[in-house]
Design a protein that fits this description.
The structure is a homodimer.
Chain A lengths: L7 E4 L5 H11 L3 E6 L5 H4 L7 H7 L4 E4 L5 H12 L3 E4 L5 H4 L4 H7 L4 E6 L14 H7 L20 H24 L3 E6 H5 L4 H9 L20 E6 L2 E6 L3 H10 L14 H6 L1 H13 L3 H10 L4 E3 L3 H5 L2 H6 L2 E6 L3 E6 L2 H6 L15 H9 L3 H9 L7
């Protein structure tokens, strides 16, 4: 028994943004059917030997695949028949793509008034920027994230992680399940227009805070320091064999830290007692902490600080994360043997990890692997009809 | 009529992670009751004149506040009575805090088997790292995000945005609504153990992909270039008056770009035609694009590229975002006059913007502002009982 076991999703998502929302749905038990062109979804197209292979495999776990030509009149008709059987349609094409196919929300609502149409995009389907093509890097730039990432005096930098794509995707998931919940009561469908930019803006709450606090002065990039420079210690310090992140969010943390690093002499410094004062003495505070950490291994520094109740961690690389026993024990990561890619560390849905859902994910589907199965199951087509569609090029070869 | 209008949430969330989940719930119509100590939730404590004022106001829109001493036996009893009337309890305290109060999931489930207990933390309530204290910066370090953010050869860098806090918060929201949906069918409550680290790992999909693609070599930091260095153009280029982000995710984008920048001579270069080849010529590709952009204003560059169907944007700062007509038209941002802080640009819930929910958010509550109202409403307490509780210090002064 899974949470979304009664839900059918037609997934036209491409690359990361849309597919992450439907990944979360598939892992929560929904029947997610990737509806792909006869040449396959973009991310699939980069091939199994590309760097996109792992992301594709990860994001499309437990989904089925139907290959359908939506430009063919018979393909359109089939799609509308599928919509009648579905609860959710999701896409993250460039604006008006579905409308030009005659398959926009207005058309789908007519065949199924209860349909939840979930559209992902960079900036939204309304507003002056609706037609701006967008990818994660361009939304990181447009949304303000880059302007406050980077060293003091350095150039604006992107996060190395695709944060905008995934913020968009998870908020799309949140909106879909919210509307599914509401539909239980009202029976009504909905149009969801989720912009990656809208989804990522709240992460700038501290920066908006800094702007207002500093009389509407533009906050500078602060490297690894606090965005408003109003908290110390708050930094990443060099250890003998790596880097250690430390933050004291309460004055009690600072007192504990001084004990941990054998600097209880500084407890007498009244001008370091409160956060605001420590922030005013940021260079000195960073030196005190940094000097101590420089003489430690990163693990020793972490262990000692945590033992004294000071929030700290180490900067870890991908390999350390992939082999992290903590993540494997929680089931966040799992070692799998992929039929083509071999031994992999596969990511779970964080929602499944959090809820203890015991789901054995299936590998991502081959293109059109489930075309016949889905059309038989949901539309009752017979062998002769299925072969005819394939011959006409309305559906693809499995 | 709002999606979650029938839901009551007891919100013990602090700072960003937990409160973002309950912010999304409050904005979706749930009755969210902040249950605070008599001195108030941490983020509130930094004061209305601190840089934390705006984040507090933003995250606690449309919530009520009850001040309750959970260490007092009468306070505990009252809380359990409230749990009987509630659907969701949320907290993001350090591990075992609630258990030590005798108010952990095991106890709450006894008084209300249908309760959904949502716990947010850095690394989760299970596993070898369960007891590591965590904040956004330490999770950015631990989760791998910092190791792949920064310039080639530079130090590991945090995102200037609190991405881990908010990924944790929105996945918590997604998990809660998923369980509420499931509960409609099963009647059963649930324990949700959402780790910020688990929630943010999927953003590293490209980096895991790079690792496997490069025969398990550690991916370096790549500045503003593609994480696996397998796509070009993909970068942020200096214009006369700022920076422009450009990405060509299809070969067609490259051809369009060459037309846009009057370099159709390069269409003849067979060794730049396909993405893999352009990636192999990354320096040259960046020079071609960079030279053109260097001679443009950033807006001219953006306009011309977008007009030719090339995904591009400009690097914007906080002020440009706060005054962005697009964001105001969509309702993502709204100008408000705050009773204490004055004129502010307030953020909406991205889910409300996406679903067109017409919600007029209420300002964040003062500490204990609704104590009497809530205890009267949900528990039927009378004036004399309420005054008695206040006199005993079980509840705070409003």
């Amino acid at each position: 028994m899974t949470a979304l076991q009664d839900i059918v999703v037609l997934d036209l998502g491409q690359i990361y943004n849309g597919p992450y929302a439907t990944f979360l749905m598939a892992m929560a038990g929904a029947r997610v059917i990737k509806v792909e062109s006869l040449t396959g979804e973009s991310l699939r197209g980069r091939g199994l030997t590309s760097s996109a292979a792992y992301p594709f495999e990860m994001l499309n776990q437990s989904k089925e695949s139907v290959s359908l030509d939506l430009k063919h009149p018979d393909g359109k008709a089939l799609f509308l028949d599928l919509v009648r059987q579905a609860d959710v349609v999701l896409e993250n094409f460039s604006p008006d793509t579905m409308e030009r196919l005659g398959l926009g929300y207005e058309q789908l609502e007519k065949v199924n008034p209860g349909i939840i149409y979930a559209a992902g995009s960079g900036y939204g389907r309304s507003g002056p920027h609706r037609d701006y093509l967008a990818m994660d890097i361009t939304v990181q730039a447009m949304s303000g994230l880059m302007s406050i990432t980077g060293t003091e005096g350095g150039d604006p930098l992107k996060s190395g992680a695709a944060v905008c794509d995934f913020f968009g995707g998870v908020h799309l998931y949140g909106a879909i399940v919210t509307k599914l919940y509401e539909r239980q009561r009202t029976g009504k469908g909905a149009m969801i227009d989720m912009a990656m930019q809208d989804a990522v803006l709240p992460t700038l709450a501290s920066v908006f805070g800094a702007y207002y606090f500093n009389d509407r002065q533009l906050p500078p990039r602060t490297g690894n320091r606090h965005p408003a420079l109003t908290m110390a210690p708050y930094n990443v310090y060099r250890a003998r064999d790596g880097h250690v992140a430390v933050i004291c969010v309460r004055d009690g943390h600072w007192r504990s830290l001084l004990t941990a690093i054998d600097r209880e002499d500084l407890l007498a410094r009244a001008d370091l007692e409160k956060m605001m004062d420590r922030a005013a003495h940021m260079e000195e505070v960073d030196q005190v902490v940094g000097d101590w950490i420089a003489g430690q291994s990163r693990q020793d520094a972490l262990t000692r600080l945590q033992a004294h109740g000071v929030p700290a961690s180490v900067v870890r690389n991908i390999e350390e994360i992939m082999t992290d026993e903590h993540l494997h024990q929680r089931g966040t990561l799992n070692r799998v043997t992929h039929p083509v890619l071999g031994e992999l560390v596969m990511m779970n849905s964080a929602i499944n990890t959090a809820t203890g859902a015991e789901v054995s994910p299936r590998p991502a589907p081959a293109l059109g692997e489930h075309t016949h199965e889905v059309l038989r199951d949901l539309l009752g087509l017979n062998e002769s009809q299925l072969n005819d569609l394939q011959d006409k090029g309305v559906t693809g070869q499995p």
